[in-house]
Amino acid sequence: MTETLSSAPSAGGPLKKAFELLETIAQAPGPTSLSSITRQSGKPKSSVHRMLRILLDLDLVTRVQDGYVLGSYLGDLTRDSARSRAERLRRVLNPYLVELRDATGGIVITAVLSGPDVEIVDTFYTRHWAPLVLRSPVTAPAHCTAVGRALLAHRPDAVSLLEEHFPQRHTERTRTCVVDLARQFEVTRNRGVALVDSEYLPDTTAIGAPLLTGDQHPFMAIGVWAPKGRIDVTRAMNAVFRTAEAIRVDLTSDRTPMTAC
Q1: N or C: which end of the chain has fewer CB within 10 A?
Q2: pLDDT tens for residues 208-230?
Q3: CB–CB of 66/31 below 8 Å?
């Protein structure tokens, strides 16, 4: 009798079984024995043992004293992939950020959210800003920095995040009222950029804009900051907005062979 499509064995069956075993091992709190893997998978012990031998040869699984754990290959592959995506992203962004530095005369940064804080990823500056940059922290509170506020403005859970991590005052100008900050987020969304005046570092002006690459929440922001009076604020706001928009177009165009991290 001719085998129907529905009764034909799946070409991906062995691969699916392998991933099921990997998932079983990954979810275990520690090394998992052959008997435990067999019991949880519901497969014959001989089949599980045969599949484990293949996974061991590929370094997807490692045998230890008390059983089996995930091997190093998947972790290495993930880390290499993340590094590769980050490096491709950097190659796209860097020319824009150098131009932004030259157009504004300020210190240009990229930053990502890390809980209630922002972490500086890259900094672009001319030599005369070096002493100031080297004294500046690489992690800062998101609520009182321009890049942080630009990212929080597009987070639906921003208010609950601030309520969980009570905003602290860093200068006399720091906004700590969650209701006030929520209004600032709305202003930022409408304007496209966040403007912060001396709320984290005294006597500084900072401007930030999110990198919007689709329907997802922005994963990164760009910003410019400098001591008060050292940059033209209106010109810098326009430059940051235009740069963020140009990056968005570049990241979402067909000619950019990458997706946002």
Answers
A1: N
A2: 999 987 656 788 899 999 999 99
A3: yes
Both tokens of 175, joined, read 């906004």
* Rounded distance between C-alpha atoms, residue 57 and residue 48, angstroms: 14
Looking at residue 261, what is its pLDDT?
Answer: 36
Q: How far is CA 123 from the centre of its chain?
A: 17
d(CA 24, CA 31): 11
Tell me how far apart the alpha carbons of residues 199 and 197 are, in angstroms, rounded to a whole number. 6
* Cα distances (Å, whole numbers) of residue 30 to 67, 69, 163, 217: 9, 7, 36, 35
Beta-strand runs (E) in the chain:
61-64, 67-70, 107-114, 117-124, 139-141, 194-197, 204-210, 221-227
Res 22: pLDDT: 85
> How would you label 97-111 residue by residue, b for 16+ Cβ within 10 Å and e otherwise?
beebbebbbbbbbbb
How far apart, in Å, are the Cα atoms of 259 and each of 11, 65, 150, 214, 248?
29, 41, 21, 11, 11
Higher-confidence residue of 85 and 220: namely 220
